[in-house]
Fold each of these.
Amino acid sequence: MNGAQQFLKSLRKNKVEHAFGIPGGVLIPFYDELYKDNSGLKHILVRHEQAGAHMAEGYAKVSGKVGTCIGTSGPGATNLVTGIADAFMDSVPIVAIGGQVATSLIGKDAFQEADMMGITNPITKHNFQIRNPNKIESVVDAAYFIASTNRPGPVYIDLPKDTQQKDVTGSEKVNLSGYKVLEGFDKEAVKEAAKLLLSAQRPVILVGGGAVHANCSQELKQLAEICMIMVASTSQGKGVFDERHPLSIGMTGMHGKPPAVFAIQKSDVLFTIGMRFDDRVTGQLNSFAPEAKVIHIEIDPSEIHKNRTANIPILGDAKDVLTELVIVIKKMQWKNTAWLDKLKLLKKEYQDDNLDINTEPIDPRKLMFELQKVIDDDTIVATGVGEHQMDVAHFIKFAKPRKFITSGGLGTMGFGFPAAIGAKVAMPKNDVINVDGDGSFMMTMQELATVKVNDIKVTNIIMNNGYLGMVRSWHDLFYEGRRSQVHLGKIPDFEKLANAFSLEGITVERPSEIGDAFKRALASDGTSIVNVHVKEDAIVLPIVPAGASNSKMIGDMIPKDYFE
Amino acid sequence: MNGGAWVMEKYIIKFLAVNSRGVIARLSALIARKGFNIESFCAGHHIKDGESSIVITFSGSEGDVQQAVAQMSKLINIISAEYYHEKDVVQRELLLVKLKNVSGVKEKAQALGGRLMKEYSGFVDFEFVDKPNSIEKNVAELKKNFTVIDISRSGNNAI
């Protein structure tokens, strides 16, 4: 057996069913084995490696399984980098495989050589270069194990050409003595947390992406309902707690719901699960939840005290910790109605649910109004990055985790469409919608070919304003309207673009046409583009200006004394 | 770090690492991108085959060193990482110094605790093994009185 056969066999051993990739010179031995293979590994030929990496992310985010992407040496591998960095920031379990020039040529500036070990070092959980074919099995096992355990993240494998060609003569293990799966947690700390939580006058629960990985929705719901505490989320934590639940106060952060931002700012105990106090969540850090004692459940020791000192840190798996906490809390008695009543009232007073706005040109909020109508609990909604992303994050309510797929930490434009493709491959029975901006969509739109050829259905809704809208709105808000290099023009015609790929395209210019267009697109056999021309100068409000305190949120609908 | 008094102290971080390709590169890249305040870095083989010991001298608050240790421990090749206040460990640094061989230089170097290693064509090489502070003082003293041609320092080692 040669190295390429061993590599393929090892992927199958690790239950890899799909891989998103593009072959190239140094990967020919591997792709030759793939050609001859009948083990059932489905390779999806993508049109750009960056998109392949985002597909692996989308696949992983909706399924909880490890996503796999492949690129050849040099440019193929460097194209993977944005996707790897994105996965690193949002803790997405993927294994990215890059071809590498033959070991004898490494370091000689050979054709299509790039130092991928150096390049991926700061953006991976770990990386491996396999110089010895006898280590292939052990490295592949380790890569999938590391990517999916503890705090998940991307692992890169550098696979030189000769490693694939040489015979495997034995089996050598890689030394993983430095990596241990976190087990157990401090039960005393859980008791302390229960006491603190029940002594609180103004408690709030805040969940992040870590709660998604921990699959702790059930336990979280029990905790919230027993204690009658409102639950807020970060963008990555959307859906972990059903956003239609009366105890859901919505997403917090720069473009969060004011009641959620308010509740956290005023809280005296902030109970956080799997979130990292990112600047887009906290605003100015030293004025974030200034009176709150923080309970921080976290799987990654380096996140505890990193940005905000935790009064009670609990290192462990959130599902296990919450299970224990619910048992402890059930024995205690507590109901805090005054604070809860105030938050309920704020939720009611802050009216942003009236989105049926029929002015022309189309208001983005109307689009959200129509979108909410066509999605059910199992619909997966991916987004690009920009105003459309914040509109979905702010307005659309998700009932389940792993349904809102968005690039949070890295903020990668072009993420939405390929991530939606990966999501559809992982969950073929679910409707998958990609809400995108015109600027964002254009960064990875070559994948229209991939979905056509592979018959993958993604419904793209493009919120087309002819601008790099998020930056333009900052120009308008904070730079006296100097719109520097943000005008895209309404190029291309996305309906015709879809047609060029033999896909369905629908153009929408009036609010009254949106509903039917969505229904038509969702009923379509394959991928479609709904090109919605929206107001050019819409601004996503509310907003906390970058670097400002979360108590300085601005927006038409927020009364001046809201946070006082 | 949010809140708490910010006191600059020196800490010794002692790592045990898998002796694999790139482990030093991973550690130093992490130190660089996180902006940790490192004064010295000293590495060598450990007791078991395939394992290395790395000693880092770190300055910052206790919160800083905790965060640094937590971040560095995440590296897959790091088997263990512990930190100590500098007062609580034995510290030694090796200094090799080349001096111009003039009258009194050997006596002075020996008085400072140096060991003569080599003497040739107008130069002398001395070895000093001492606490980092004393090494600093010795270097200053030698520079003040004699012509120092070259020095090589091992970085602070500790146990």
Amino acid sequence: MSEITAGPPLRASLPGRRGEAIKAIPVRHPWRWVSAAAVLALAGGAVYTIVTAPDLRWDQVGKYLFQQLILRGVLVTLELTVLAMVIGIALGVVLAVMRLSPNPVVSWVSWMYIWFFRGTPVLVQIFFWYNLNIVLKHIGVGIPFTSLHWLASTNSLINPFVAATLGLGLNEAAYMAEIVRAGIISVEHGQTEAAQALGMTRLLVMRRIVLPQAMRVIIPPTGNETISMLKTTSLAFIAAVPELFTRSEQISNFNYYVVELAIVISIWYLFMTSILTVGQYYVERHFGRGAQRQLPPTPLQRLRTMFFTLHTPPPAPPVASVLVPREQR
Amino acid sequence: MGAAPMVKAEAVYKNYGRLEVLRGIDLEVEPKEVLCMIGPSGSGKSTFLRCINHLENIDAGRLSVDGELVGYRQRGNRLYELSDPEVCKKRSQIGMVFQRFNLFPHMTALANVIEAPIRVKKESRAVAVERARGLLQRVGLADKLDAYPNQLSGGQQQRVAIARALAMQPKLMLFDEPTSALDPELVGEVLDVMRGLAEDGMTMVVVTHEMGFAREVSDKLVFMDGGVIVEAGTPREMLVNPQFERTRAFLSKVL
């Protein structure tokens, strides 16, 4: 016991002595410099080769970047993305809840839907809706054994835009269903019990307690799906929907600036996905409430602190307080 | 109905498949009474507690709260299962506090407390907030209204959970090992709140390992083991002079 007296006095909230600051010569990493140089050289070379391709007409890229048809194509691409994702998310939530339903038939129907729509290419699905009128001239609903019915020609119901939206949206729903289901399962069962013990109905528990918490798990992959969808809309060209890719095809078909137009639309796709990435960050931050003690800083706040800390010396490292039991005397 | 016991169990059985968890529980809790249940883990205490608000259903026997069967309606000789809304309505009159707190992490302390009064009892926001403020003040958290659960200590979280249950103005409170997940330092603050509740005349069923609390606060003590009630009585008699060897063996380990 007598050795202990050599240490600092045991008193709460008084820090111990701070030792001499560490000043050491850092380990050198020569290979890091070599590999960095090699990677830069390779990447730079590839980009340089393409940018300076002798027959690449950069003036045409500039000319078509803000051309009317391209701009309208951008708009259609955005419309398709939004509509398909709305259908995908709404139907996906329904399918996920069905999948988890205690009713085996309901659960099985959801399983079959996911199996079918995930198991066939989305290009084929768009193609299917686009050509449905070949085998089905009219679509309608009616009540059996009565004369109540409603009928319309397939062509008037499913125009190219609708065909593409349906194909993309219904396919997306299958993927979203799995994402939402994973989110719902990730919420601890105690949450459901606590809500039930308060007298909340199944629906209320789902809507107010489980889904908001599932969001934290659902949002990141949904962001990926949205970004992916933005690019997948280019498949709508099979249904002759005038979106971005279709527009570039139409233009290059008569001026032969195929690569230039591919670059033009790539710039647009990159621009839109970049915007979505930033948006995703803020949505994630919103649904992260309560998950972390402090919300992570926004990119703007981060920039500000970076700027700030460049000019002022970093604060001294916090001194760990000595842990002494409260009752110690 | 005033004389009816708040909780009445007659030969309650419960099994998970072939595992019998409750093997004939007979028990009565009078209004304003505090009943503590002790016993080794796996003895069925928590399961019985969860049967009272129908988080689990029983397989045989009769279990009633405030004179009404839990989960069923009896007409003549027949039992009719209650619908989801009916079960919810009954649950809303029984408060429950869990070992793991189970606060809603995406809501502030205040939002946790007003959620059920607004959504289930359809109270106006103003009324619910008013009462929630009072309750949070009562459990000593008047300055934590806007804190999220993970910004609170375990003891604070459990006190919010108690306030959340009380906000529904229950006629009965169930506590499922409310201090078992807490640091020893924080147990006292939660027990103090519970003690206050008992003094105010709340009917309480408490599953606990806190023998001190059981001795001081409970009117009736029940020792369970292997899905049956081994011994029941007043805490003073039982803790000082247990009648059965099994009780004595258990108490010698925990006291």
